[in-house]
Amino acid sequence: MQFLRLTLCLLLPALGPGIARAESTQGFYAGAGLLSMNLLKSATGEKASRSLFGDTYFPEITFGYRFGDWFPLIGYSLFGKANPEGSKRRGTLRVQVPYVFSTDESALEWKAGLGFLVHRFYGAGGPAELGNGVGRQTYYVPEDGSNARLLYLVGGLGLKAERIRYDFDLIISGVLSARRAFHFSAGAGYVF
Question: For residues 35 and 31, what is the distance between their CA atoms, to the nearest angstrom?
Fold first, then answer.
């Protein structure tokens, strides 16, 4: 995860010439938002519940570059969320390339496309008190990380108000599998 943060910090100055070009075409976008994972998820077991608004939220920064009818976007969660067990943290990196269905004069944009989500689990290791099915017990967790990589479909709505842009996206991962999940992303940003 440190590598991703370092890469983003190094990429921002390199985007300077791209920002200058974007102003003459259709725009570079920088903003912030919230990614809500697993909408309408049903939990099983004793504490079964249904979460309408998702079970995990990630505040994220987003960067996009609109050219023509395409609007590639990168979203990255700056702060890892702690697991309920407390032993590991999780974060996300998503890249999506939607096609925008609108005219330049319209403030409302519809978009649809593909995306790629990297869901990272990582931890510092050491002793952690975890549930063992009956009670709690101390386990020694290795310092390690793992990634889940998901290809997804994205569909959404963009709203332009002068230089401010609002985006609302529905993300569907695992479309052709039994592990299909729905996620929601909302954000706002400034178009240069």
Answer: 13
